[in-house]
User: Which sequence fits this backbone?
């Protein structure tokens, strides 16, 4: 994607790169904060013939503005993975934005959220409620849901004792059949923190790097007796969180030494021992962004430049 800036429109909203790829179009960039149950979806990204979170949201937006609208997401999620704090942006034309509140006393942001909920119920049918738009705002100029993000944070919930296997929470909890030593898991996880090549814990994609900064990787046993993993990084490559948790489970069971995860990291080997934890307990909890508008735009430019250099 080119980092070239588009002309500043008269509205003063700033030159907006297109949602996804292609030429820039003056208008209004909208940030949408979402939550969704990953169960009914075949992941985030659009796939022909499959229901996806992106597909449902774009179809709902198209019903409202009467044209195709592409959205850009902070972090793609796999099939079955949930989100409480997903962020996307979409670019609307100025006239489309103004039309939202033409017959309402409410602000366009509130009208858009309300109309999206109605449109999503039509799109999702029996799965209504599986995807909720929490809020819509016009962000600072230069905001990009993907490239402005500083970090993404996930959680992963594990019940390793039969007395904690709650049927009402089975859709967001791994029922693990062996007791886990949280201390051993934390000892192994701590050795992976920092900037490193996580090839051993990723499924590489062409034109992408597997170098990431792992900022948090820890496990806690809650007052309920359930183990929750907390994983935070500047970004994640494909399957990275599930591979990290799946590997830590082997250490927690006593099947591997606490040094094993670090040894695999250094070896950069992806083999049969790279086990993916199941997707259904994984939740995208939050995406972090810079505090100031200037930092927001600078972060986006920096991330785009790095991506272009890697693809280059």
Assistant:
């Amino acid at each position: 994607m080119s980092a070239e800036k588009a002309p500043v429109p008269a509205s003063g909203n700033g030159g907006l790169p297109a949602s996804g790829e292609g030429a820039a179009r003056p208008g209004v960039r909208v940030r949408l904060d979402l939550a969704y149950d990953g169960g009914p979806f075949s992941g985030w990204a659009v796939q022909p013939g499959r229901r996806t979170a992106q597909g449902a949201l774009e179809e709902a937006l198209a019903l409202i503005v009467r044209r195709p609208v592409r959205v850009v997401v902070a972090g793609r999620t796999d099939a079955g993975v949930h989100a409480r704090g997903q962020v996307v942006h979409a670019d609307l034309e100025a006239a489309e934005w103004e039309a939202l509140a033409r017959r309402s006393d409410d602000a366009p942001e509130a009208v858009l959220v309300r109309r999206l909920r109605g449109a999503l119920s039509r799109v999702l049918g029996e799965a209504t409620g599986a995807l909720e738009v929490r809020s819509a705002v016009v962000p600072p100029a230069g905001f990009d849901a993907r490239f402005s993000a500083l970090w993404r944070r996930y959680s992963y919930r594990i019940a390793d004792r039969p007395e904690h296997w709650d049927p009402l929470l089975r859709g967001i909890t791994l029922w693990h059949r062996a007791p886990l030593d949280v201390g051993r898991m934390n000892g192994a996880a701590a050795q992976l923190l920092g900037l490193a090549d996580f090839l051993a814990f990723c499924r590489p994609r062409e034109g992408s790097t597997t170098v990431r900064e792992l900022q948090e990787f820890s496990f806690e046993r809650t007052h309920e007796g359930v183990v929750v993993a907390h994983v935070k990084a500047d970004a994640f490559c494909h399957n990275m969180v599930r591979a990290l948790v799946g590997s830590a489970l082997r250490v927690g069971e006593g099947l591997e030494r606490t040094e094993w995860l670090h040894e695999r990291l250094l070896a950069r080997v992806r083999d049969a021992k790279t086990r993916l934890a199941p997707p259904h307990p994984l939740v995208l909890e939050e995406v972090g962004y810079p505090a100031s508008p200037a930092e927001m735009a600078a972060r986006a430019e920096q991330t785009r430049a790095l991506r272009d250099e890697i693809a280059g």
Notes: The chain has a mean pLDDT of 89.
